[in-house]
Design goal:
This protein is about 40% helix and about 15% strand. By secondary structure, the protein is of the alpha/beta class. The strands form 2 sheets. The protein has an 8-stranded mixed beta sheet with strand order 3-2-1-4-7-6-9-8, sandwiched between helices. The protein has a two-stranded antiparallel ribbon with strand order 5-10. α4 (about 130-135) links the parallel β2 (about 120-125) and β3 (about 140-145).
Length: about 375
């Protein structure tokens, strides 16, 4: 009996493997037809995508040591003033990266440069390799002290918590230098110049503007012309995302409180993060706009700051843009896409950008190009 059981235990996986192989061969035809239907559906959807969003051959990357190369210089009031003066709205675009994120930072900067906004950007380098890479690409960069390290700062890792603290400290420093900053993580891609839109909100006295983790825009926001902010009652439930936001100098006290909150013991325990800490501060004493106020600005942080929500069809998450493909069906042209809701960390985000024609750093080959 024991011998029979041993034979059965040994042979059962082999039998299972054989039947699995036969099933795979038998189902190949149906899998192929499903793939064909998927390709046809994708091609049909692509016909509705605005022309500038269709896949296109990338421009060549900057040479390793181009004439435009400039050394990274310490962050200063002069750097803030000169980048703000490079556009009509006085906004400084800001991000930072370590060595693991250098290619994302270069892609981020190249998209802005294609929009004529490269001179309005400041990029922080947390290590020497990033310093050299950004400098060689001609980006205006500055050394940024951080404990992130050179490796990928995956969500929940010690590097991730250091990245959140570095961001809050950088924002506080820039606001103290009187910057009106548009902070965008390096996994944000700008597809259109955001400044005309942002300029209207600043003229309406907005002091904080946040991209959110929402999964869609309200019908009112989609229909608005010219485009405005999201209706607070529709958009306030999801978290405001710290990967894409605008802050005016009036928010300096908020940034200082954010830094203090992240210094506290347990700020990143139990999967908490910098985003949750800032949301708690923003929602403290939050007051809805008065009835009939078309600006859609809320009083945030104890009523001291005017807060607006960026609509998801103009500033979509990765889920909305790549998975739902809702913007393609709308025929909407996003201003910026933030690659949130993406598996496989940076490698997954890099692949998403390549598939979407948003990665400008290498020759992608025929697989990624339009037919």
């Amino acid at each position: 009996m024991r011998l029979v059981l041993r034979i059965a235990v040994f042979t059962l996986p082999i039998i299972t493997l054989i039947f699995s192989a036969k099933f795979h061969v038998a189902s190949t035809g149906s899998q192929s037809s499903r793939a064909q239907r998927f390709l046809l559906q994708t091609a049909t959807e692509a016909d509705t995508v605005p022309p500038h969003l269709l896949l296109r051959p990338p421009p060549p990357p900057p040479p390793p040591h181009s004439d435009s190369a400039r050394p990274c210089e310490p962050l200063s009031a002069r750097a803030v003033r000169e980048t703000a003066e490079a556009n009509a709205h006085g906004v400084t675009f800001v991000t930072f990266a370590n060595a693991a994120q250098l290619d994302f930072a270069l892609n981020w900067h190249q998209h802005l440069s294609l929009l004529g906004l490269g001179r309005s950007a400041l990029l922080g380098a947390t290590d020497e390799a990033t310093n050299r890479g950004l400098s060689a690409a001609g980006a205006r960069c500055f050394p940024l002290k951080s404990s992130i390290g050179a490796d990928e700062a995956k969500w929940g890792s010690p590097g991730f918590s250091h990245m959140g603290r570095t961001k809050a400290l950088l924002v506080r420093t820039l606001l103290e230098l009187n910057a009106t900053l548009l902070f965008a993580d390096v996994d944000v891609v700008f597809l259109r110049d955001p400044l005309p839109y942002l300029g209207r909100q600043l003229a309406a006295h907005a002091q904080l503007l946040f991209h959110t983790d929402g999964f869609g825009s309200s019908p009112e926001a989609i229909a608005a012309q010219p485009p405005g902010l999201e209706t607070p009652s529709f958009g306030i439930t999801p978290e405001m995302n710290t990967g894409l936001f605008l802050m005016a100098p009036a928010a300096a006290a908020l940034a200082a409180a954010w830094c203090a909150a992240l210094d506290a013991d347990g700020a990143f325990s139990n999967w908490k993060n910098d985003q949750q800490a800032l949301n708690q501060l923003l929602r403290r004493g939050l007051v809805a706009p008065p009835a009939g106020d078309t600006r859609k600005l809320m009083a945030a942080y104890g009523g001291s700051l005017q807060l607006g929500l960026l609509p998801n069809h103009l500033f979509p998450s990765g889920h909305l843009f790549f998975i739902q493909r809702a913007l393609h069906r709308l025929g909407a042209t996003p201003v910026a896409v933030h690659l949130t809701f993406q598996n496989c960390d940076q490698s997954g985000k890099r692949h998403r950008m390549r598939e979407g024609g948003l990665w400008l750093l290498d020759d992608l080959g025929p697989h990624f190009l339009p037919p």
